[in-house]
Amino acid sequence: MSTSPPGEAADELPEVAPQLRELRRARRLTLEAAAQRAGLSAAHLSRLETGHRQPSLPMLLALARIYGTTVSELLGEAPPERDPIVRAGRMDAVEADGWTYRQAGGPGRAMQPLHVRVPYGPQGDLVRVHAGEEWIYVLEGRLRLSLGDAVHLLDPGDSAHFDSLTPHRIAAADTGGTELLFVHTLLRSPAAELCLGGGAAHRG
Predict the structure, then answer these.
(1) What share of the chain is helix, strand, coil (3-state, %, to 5)?
(2) What distance lies between CA 157 and its chain's CA centroid?
(3) Quick one: which of 65, 104, 112, 158 has the most CB atoms within 10 Å?
(4) End-to-end CA distance of the chain, in Å?
(5) Counting Cβ atoms within 10 Å, is residue 44 exposed (0-12), middle (13-18) or buried (19+)?
(6) Bridging pattern class, strands 143-147 and 168-172
(7) Which own/partner pairs from 4-11 qualify as long-range (CB within 8 Å, at least 24 positions apart)?
(8) Which of 167, 189, 185, 192 has the alpha carbon at shortest distance from 116?
(9) Is residue 68 helix, strand or coil?
(10) pTM of the predicted protein model
(11) pLDDT tens digits, 36-47
């Protein structure tokens, strides 16, 4: 005979419950804070974390989004093997307002690297402010980087590493344009929506 409280699932999810608890603690979220973001009561989330209630798929999707992970990870499934090598020409180019972007790493990682070609010309007054970190390394040409009220001129070999909450703007300083490596931590940001270009993108 089942001993589960009325209206609750009899079967426990031994994999999901500890995963939910560990991910919440790793994100330094209290039970109340995580439950509020997921649209649940703290008591409901507590029952999910102790295995006394089964989460529905919408609940798993909401919690995965909050914890920055996937439903597969919540279920304890092993992630697919990732190829650590990215071959030249394997990634399609994305263009926006004359800017050319190529992914330089695999998708779904905490860091996303791009190989970017920045054309010379007026870039407008597009200033970006968003959560995350960015790292820029100049390969060719010179880059004008505005961080807050400061303007920096970067030569080939120079790099910059900054918090993306600092208002920033990027432009080529040479008529021949600038080529750079760009690494960001914005997993859900398409290339053309980052601090670089400002218009609609199309694939080349």
Answers:
(1) 20, 25, 50
(2) 26
(3) 112
(4) 63
(5) middle
(6) antiparallel
(7) 4/52, 5/52, 8/47, 8/52, 8/53, 9/53, 9/54, 11/54
(8) 192
(9) coil
(10) 0.54
(11) 888 889 999 999
CA gap 91, 29 in Å, rounded:
37
| φ, ψ at 76 (rounded to 5°) | 80, 15
SS3 17: helix
Q: What is the pLDDT of residue 110?
A: 65
Phi-psi region of 10 (alpha: psi -120 to 50; beta: other; left: phi over 0): alpha
CA-closest candidate to residue 157, choices 134, 135, 180: 180
CB 164 within 8 A of CB 134: yes
Low-confidence ranges of the chain (pLDDT < 70): 1-15, 76-83, 89-91, 106-110, 122-125, 131, 186-204
What distance in Å separates the CA atoms of residue 105 and residue 102, rounded to the nearest whole number?
Answer: 9
Which candidate, 176, 180, 152, 177, places its Cα nearest to that of 166? 152
Q: What are phi and psi of 94, to 5 degrees?
A: -120, 130
Q: What is the pLDDT of residue 126?
A: 74
Q: How far apart are CA 5 and CA 18, in angstroms?
A: 20
Alpha-carbon distance of 121 to 125, in angstroms, equals 12
* Residue 202: both structure tokens together: 């199309």
Per DSSP, what are the bridge partners of residue 116? 101, 180
DSSP lists the bridge partners of residue 138 as 180
- What is the rounded CA–CA span in Å between residue 165 and residue 130? 5
